[in-house]
Amino acid sequence: MTTGAPGRSPAEIRRDIDFKRRQLGTSVDALRGRVNELTDWRRQVEDHKQQLVVGAAAVGFFIGARAMLRRRKNR
Fold it and tell me: How many domains is the chain partitioned into structurally?
C-alpha cells in the first residue's frame, strides 16, 4: 500500500519536500531580517526623527499649558 498523490514516485516526493524546505528557509531568513529591522530602535529613531521632534514639542506644549492653567487656578 502506497500513500501520497497517485502517479508520483518517491523520488519526486523527496524533490518536492527538499524544494519546500529551501523555500521555507528563505522565507524564515527574510522574516528574521525584517523583524530585526523593525525592532532596531536606533534605526527607527533615525528614520522617524522629524516625527519624534514634533511629538516631543507637542507633549512639551501640553505639559506647559497644563502647568500654566493649574498655576492660574491656584491664585
Answer: 2
